[in-house]
Amino acid sequence: MPGEDAFLLHDTYGFPLELTAEIARERGFTVDETGFEVEMEKQRARARAAAKGGDAVTAEQAYASLGDIETAFGGYETLIRDTSVVALHVGGRRRKVAKAPAEVELFLAETPFYPEGGGQVGDRGEIAAPSGRVAVEDTQTVAERLIVHRGRVVEGRIAAGEAVTARVDPRHREDTMRNHTGTHLLHAALRRVLGSHVRQSGSLVALDRLRFDFT
């Protein structure tokens, strides 16, 4: 698959590159990831140009404008991590401070929160600062290198540069992982009953349910 097509799926429809690559592999194809990165860099360049010109920017451009910031994931080892706020967005714009009850997007230096991927929903939990607390309702990967924690400031305030403690909701993680395992067991059972031709074409893995799409 050309990188331009994979980028279109990602940019227009929110389709993660890893999921596109997984589906392509199941059908005997590969994705031109180099071409995809070329298109991503073009997007970042457009975002930088728009920011300098003061024009309104899309969410994807806003993420790209964060530059070379990356999020380190450490959620396999622990569900609690002392870290810091690298940047935050309120209303799609980068801000220094967010106060209750604002909806906010937080970017951390390191996080234990697992982002949505492969059909599995992202972690929930909370991020606590010395003077405030954010209830995290969703976790996503954006711009291929950033993990964004979406939620609401439920107490006080939170600021860029602050030291914080990130805590994943253990029940949400564990129940979601069980359903993720369930999709693999279901896939194996379908192949055993219906035949080896059965292929996974998609899935949804949530806290309280799972969906398995196959062909």
UniProtKB/TrEMBL annotation:
<dbReference type="InterPro" id="IPR018165">
    <property type="entry name" value="Ala-tRNA-synth_IIc_core"/>
</dbReference>
<dbReference type="InterPro" id="IPR018163">
    <property type="entry name" value="Thr/Ala-tRNA-synth_IIc_edit"/>
</dbReference>
<dbReference type="InterPro" id="IPR009000">
    <property type="entry name" value="Transl_B-barrel_sf"/>
</dbReference>
<keyword id="KW-0820">tRNA-binding</keyword>
<keyword id="KW-0067">ATP-binding</keyword>
<dbReference type="GO" id="GO:0005524">
    <property type="term" value="F:ATP binding"/>
</dbReference>
<keyword id="KW-0030">Aminoacyl-tRNA synthetase</keyword>
<dbReference type="InterPro" id="IPR050058">
    <property type="entry name" value="Ala-tRNA_ligase"/>
</dbReference>
<dbReference type="GO" id="GO:0002161">
    <property type="term" value="F:aminoacyl-tRNA deacylase activity"/>
</dbReference>
<protein>
    <recommendedName>
        <fullName>Alanyl-transfer RNA synthetases family profile domain-containing protein</fullName>
    </recommendedName>
</protein>
<dbReference type="InterPro" id="IPR018164">
    <property type="entry name" value="Ala-tRNA-synth_IIc_N"/>
</dbReference>
<dbReference type="GO" id="GO:0004813">
    <property type="term" value="F:alanine-tRNA ligase activity"/>
</dbReference>
<feature type="domain" description="Alanyl-transfer RNA synthetases family profile">
    <location>
        <begin position="1"/>
        <end position="215"/>
    </location>
</feature>
<keyword id="KW-0436">Ligase</keyword>
<dbReference type="InterPro" id="IPR018162">
    <property type="entry name" value="Ala-tRNA-ligase_IIc_anticod-bd"/>
</dbReference>
<dbReference type="GO" id="GO:0005829">
    <property type="term" value="C:cytosol"/>
</dbReference>
<dbReference type="GO" id="GO:0006419">
    <property type="term" value="P:alanyl-tRNA aminoacylation"/>
</dbReference>
<keyword id="KW-0694">RNA-binding</keyword>
<keyword id="KW-0648">Protein biosynthesis</keyword>
<dbReference type="GO" id="GO:0000049">
    <property type="term" value="F:tRNA binding"/>
</dbReference>
<comment type="similarity">
    <text>Belongs to the class-II aminoacyl-tRNA synthetase family.</text>
</comment>
<dbReference type="Pfam" id="PF01411">
    <property type="entry name" value="tRNA-synt_2c"/>
</dbReference>
<keyword id="KW-0547">Nucleotide-binding</keyword>
